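Consider the following input, taken from an annotated entry for Response regulator transcription factor (Microbacterium yannicii).
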Amino acid sequence: MTITVLIADDQAMVRAGFAALLDAQEDVRVVGQAADGAEAVSLSARLNPDVVLMDVRMPELDGIAATRRILGPGYPAAHVPRILMLTTFDIDDYVYDALEAGASGFLLKDALPEDLVHAVRVVAAGDALLAPSVTRRMIEHFAARRPRAGRATATLRDLTDREREVLTLIGRGRSNAEIAAELFISEQTVKTHVGKVLAKLGARDRVQAVIFAYDAGLVEAAS
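Applying the prediction step yields:
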């Protein structure tokens, strides 16, 4: 199956470079390019891409606001894309807000070409890009600066003890294989637990589960 991608970045050279790399892949096709957030929202609704590569800082409408519009209830297209944020760790102070808006992961603009291709495939498959250590550092960095959310307490009561263990490990950035090894259960069993956790939390993907784990106090920054 071909993965369709929309690239949103205000730098033409960046868009062209990403497009050339992705179009060279047999399973990826770039269907559009946007120079700002407003154009990204418009093109996303019209082109129905599987993945939107979204720069955080853009004119007219920034990437976070654009992400909220695309993933919000008023989005006109039936097919809602996955959002992969393009960012620089040192300067983007609103990355945590993008996670809460529903972004499925992050990619540094100076990432290796193979990392970009991998990231697109990961989020297109419905997973969250949590494996790179930089993503965990970002989540920890911004979670540490936010107050705990009181709403998390009641929802935690819906989780079994095992599901709470799994959620805690998700919050620490563990993969399914790592969770399986730590809890001495099969990877398939972990997948089942993860699915139940996401359903009970009403979480879109693992990224939102990580946010919940921090908000609920199950995981502390730099733990």
